[in-house]
Amino acid sequence: xxxEIKTPPRASGRREPLAWADAEPLLTAREAAALRRCSIxxxxxxxxxxxxxxxxxxxxxRPRWRLADVLPAAPTxxxxxxxxxxAAATAPAQ
Length: 94
Description:
Blueprint: E1 26-27, H1 29-36, H2 40-49, E2 56-57, E3 63-66, H3 67-70, H4 73-90
Antiparallel strand pairs: 1-3, 2-3
């Protein structure tokens, strides 16, 4: 007896978009750091310090930030770091 195996019809190859995906773009740590003009380490430091909201994890080890969360933090982070760096550079060595 020969068994005939029927496979389900193939989908078009496209998945349904996630409902929240079109609402606002999500950025990787590298993209968020580039947008804020800082390193990836500084991005994580700012999350720990509360200057940047914690990321959304799409899966383990897949953090993403909303673009709307990163944009307001960009000028603030730069304004906080640059004066401190200038003050440290111009302070007399003791």
